[in-house]
Amino acid sequence: MAKMTEPIPEIFKDIAPYDDDQFSEKIASLVREPGFEHAVRYVLPAVDYDQFCKNLLSVKTRDDFQYNVMGPFLEMLVSNTTSGLSCDGLENIQPGRAYTFITNHRDIVLDASFLNLCFIRSKKPLTQVAIGNNLLIFDWITDLVKLNRSFIVKRDVRLVDALNAARHLSDYIHYAIGSRGESVWIAQREGRAKDSNDVTQESLIKMIGLAPGDSTKQNLLDAALTPVAISYEYDPNDYLKAREFLLKHRDPDFKKSQRDDLFSMETGILKYKGRVHFHIGSCINPALQAFPGEARNEVVKESCRLIDSAIHHGYKIFPCNYIAYDEVEGSRRFIGKYSDRDVFEFDHYIDNQLDKVDVPDITPDERQYMRRMMLVMYSNPLRNQLSAQ
């Protein structure tokens, strides 16, 4: 339960989610946006949009929005685009405590959304969600995410302003946890790991450690860093990542466009993901408290090590991960973990995904290169888990 319900201080309004007193105004503005209507009709082709808007306009609080709008929508996505969403480790969330949930990053939109759905199902308090402003291409998208418990990570600031932006974000995270008693979610790195080799960025931990306090170590203890491992059986964006690998292979200066990001978001939301599993680890505070070092850099490195180890241990490994590992390594180490049928279906899946890559004049060698990168993608969770063990 949140400790307080008074409005968010003005100093945080630029990045904070919308408070309940802003909901009616912001939803009324949102439903008038042609871009929002287009997005809703794209995701829900059979929607009665007028009735949908009427239902939205009746929402008065962010809890109503989360439970009565987002909850059913996410359950629909689970039913239509996965073979089931599961979660374990919920016993690690103690009543009355707020946490900084740090996860590996697989899907731009659904990582945090599915985590909150796990919390809805288990009647746990929901978490606020960090989202980069590079994804907020239109004003209505900003309104939508701030209605949906998201706070903004500013990634387009000038170098001279970067430290102040990091302090501001850190102050907000500590305010949400310490003063409001609300957990927050943030990915362990900026952007998704294209090859699924999940490693926590030290800059993220340094940012969280910036909040005013006795020391970096105490600030990190106050944040209650809690690793969460996310496992998708299939990544709908795998072929788009392979495409990006190829384009960067051809041109090291290649950069994705905003349209690429939007298409990745659409693909991740709407396409098939197989089984999806979340493992909620233990808060790292006891291990960090016992760590003898106090210097900032060594505390940050140890925090990253603890988070990475917990995430790598927590993966759920699927047959496709074992198959990819054996193919990349040229081994039969895990042949007992999959059948001939599994191999046939995974090969067929990879070929179908590669057929979607819309790059002209792909040579056989380039297709083989993309296939190799996709296999590395699917083998790395198992590789990291083996290293962690």
Q: What does this entry look like structurally?
A:
α14 packs across α16. The model has no long low-confidence stretch (mean pLDDT 93). The chain has two domains: 10-18 and 82-234 and 272-316, Glycerol-3-phosphate (1)-acyltransferase; 320-388, no CATH class. The chain has a seven-stranded mixed beta sheet with strand order 1-7-6-2-5-3-4, sandwiched between helices. 52% of the residues lie in helices and 9% in strands. α6 links the parallel β3 and β4. It has 389 residues and is of the alpha/beta class.
Q: What's the assembly state of these chains?
A: single chain
Helix count from the secondary structure assignment: 16
Radius of gyration: 21 Å
Order of helices and strands: HHHHEEHEHEHEHHEHHEHHHHH
Find the CATH superfamily of the largest domain. Glycerol-3-phosphate (1)-acyltransferase
CATH architecture of the largest domain: 3-Layer(aba) Sandwich
What is the CATH class name of the largest domain?
Answer: Alpha Beta
Classify the helix fraction into a percent range. Answer: 40-55%
- Which structural class is indicated by helix and strand composition? alpha/beta
- Determine the CATH topology of the largest domain: Glycerol-3-phosphate (1)-acyltransferase
The tally of domains stands at 2
Return residue spans where pLDDT drops below 50 for at least 5 consecutive residues: none
Percentage of residues in DSSP E strands:
5-15%
**Strand numbers in spatial order across the main sheet:** 1-7-6-2-5-3-4
Largest sheet, described in full?
7 strands, mixed
Q: How far apart are the first and last residues' alpha carbons, in Å?
A: 36 Å
Task: Quote the average pLDDT.
Answer: 93
Number of DSSP E strands: 7
